[in-house]
Amino acid sequence: MLCCSPGPAMESAELESDILRRVRTLLRELDGHHPACQRDRGMLRWTLHKKIDQNPSNSPILVRILVKELERAERGDYRHYIIPLLHTLMYALIKAPCISDELCSRVYDFCKKLLTLPKPFCTIGLDYAARLKMERTAPGMLYQRMVISEQSLRSEPYPYQEKIFIFADPELLSEAICKALLTDTEAARVSQSPRACMCHVITHAMQAALGEGCDLSALRMRLQGMPSSEVEHWFQEVVTTVECTGSKGGADRRQHTERLRSIYSAILSSSPPGNAPLEGLQGTPLPNPNISFHLWTEDDQLWKELVLFIRPLSQSCEPDRLSQDLDNFEIQDIISDCECCEQTRFSVLSTDSGIERDLPPTAEEPFAPCSADTEQSRLHRKGGIKKKPSPLESVAFLQTGCNSPGVKPAAKVQKRVGIPTEPTAPLLRLHTARIVLLGDDRILGRLAQAYHSLRKRETRRVFLTPRLNLQFYYVPVTGQPGTLADANPSATSPEELCEVAAYLSRADPWYESNINTLCHMIPKLAAMPSSPSKHLVTDLFITDVIAYYVRMGAQPICFQVYAVKVFFSSSAQEPAEDVFLTELCAQVQDSISPREVNPTKKKTTLDGPGIDLTVTYRKVVVSDRAKEVSLSLRSTGLSMKAIPASSAEDLECLNVNITEAVRINNLSGRSFSTVANKLKTRNIKISSTEQRPFTLCLDKDSRRTYRSVISLEVSPCLEPSYCLQKSRTMKFSLHEAEDVGIVKYMPKSLLLPINTFAGVIQ
């Protein structure tokens, strides 16, 4: 009797069953059914993609299963499955060595169906449908663009560059966590070279177009033996071919395949023919993105890193001179603004007509017969105001723009005054900075401060805005004992310190499954003893998850930044202005007694605990009409929370909780109890009636504490560019209270966008 071994069909069925089981487990986690082993929570997506990376030939199986699950979710109205499944599918499709056009067509048709659904489904569906249309025409185009931009490879057809900046506050995270993250990011950055990344782009494009007809082993050996200049030549040839085909709407895929086949043959032409059989589909690894880790120690550190990203040291000047120029940039802005103001304020009577031919002859230009061209060139208007260049302009740091491909240099000043200068080309946003914040709500408060400062700086002198696309991401990480986590006793629990992460998790379940679970996992991995297994886990997991987040998380949730103006008890102290993002907390200042503040007032038992406050606020009503409300009460403290407890509540509204001390009468005499007064508002003013000071804390950060405060005003923070344009408009229409002209179309409030996978699901 013959014994039959299991055939390939049975093995394929078992593999498909295993992948389907993993996908179904992933969906059950979205429903709140967490895995039995809590250690696996948040790792299901990562382990699924890693299993496919180990055997890339199984990528079509995963894509086919995910397409079936997407169609099943649409029929069964399981909309909360659609976006996680779609992100998982697209990530697998980008990394896959080769996907058939029939399978891509099914995914493309499904994405078009999402256009009939509300946001964010239609937004994500439109984005992925446009990408899939290019991928179907030029296979491997999505992988190629991702590697080129993330690794900042020089390419004229696609000159975009990206970089990930991870910022962590050393006073909020333990030293072990900071060291572990620094080690992992450095290892990820050093592990790949530009030459290796160019080889990855070539091999992936060939296999995506030629399929199993591509001898990947021979191609890799041939590229490995080439000099770097020749590798770069073939890289440019492949990129140009793929970009030209993918950018054309009606390009023929077969012609694209033939062009790449000719390049493939030219690369292997000088290598000896091999007799080894083709090994089938093999995977090309997707390199880790360019990640830099920064300990946030300076207030303007974010702006400096962004400027260095646009203008690296090699393109600017010496490091010492650059540092000095960066420090002087703010001062030069103020001086320039003052000079402009002075020049516009005073007018000087001039007898100069402004035409060159009316000028007397100088020693440099003796009398000479004027030709027609010379006469025409002398009829040129001279400039009215000349401004001294700043030190940064003298080293061509900011004004010359980017040297990247695709941006034309600024027109040089012509020596001959009469020759008109060529108009400069508009700047393109070729750079994308992805800012990843690690920590709790307090580091987001610092981000709100830095973002507000950056917007004010850009309003005075625009440099980053037309050149840089700025994206923000947030990975919650809880602090460890010995950090500032213990400094605020009223908010030491992780739940209270991570309210933003909790809101993002409620709004986006995929964020909860992949990112919010890192809150406790990163400290545990950092506390592991140093061993090869530890580096294996951290290098593969933390770096991969952050890379997946920044690559696929493109839907922002915008948080309102609030401005607060603080008045102090001392008349000699100027009022302070600050911003906050999550919370403002005020407590009675016990160090100063009421007798010291107002000695004529005699304290009685009727006063009770707390201080007398006058509260004036604009009540939030359904009709959105302004309704001023004023009340007086005695309070022991108050808090203003900008993050709602439910994702259904309005993000553009403050939840104010005032603890009021109320007198009660009972058999034992008079006593006091506390009652919580809750109100919703966007604008509020609070002042101490008896001039008794209180203490103010912003964003739960003990480093941002104001003492001896007697009054405060809170309102939504306005966009600095809106304020500037509004002030200019008011000069010409002093009696206009409403926005007119271009001001009507400008964003009024300053919003901080934090990217997630889905945004707020309707």
Automatic annotation (TrEMBL):
GO terms for biological process: G protein-coupled receptor signaling pathway; positive regulation of angiogenesis; positive regulation of T cell differentiation; regulation of natural killer cell mediated cytotoxicity. GO terms for cellular component: phosphatidylinositol 3-kinase complex, class IB. GO terms for molecular function: 1-phosphatidylinositol-3-kinase regulator activity; 1-phosphatidylinositol-4,5-bisphosphate 3-kinase activity. It comes from the Eukaryota. Residues 360-385 are annotated as: Disordered. This is Phosphoinositide-3-kinase regulatory subunit 6. The lineage of its organism: Eukaryota, Metazoa, Chordata, Craniata, Vertebrata.
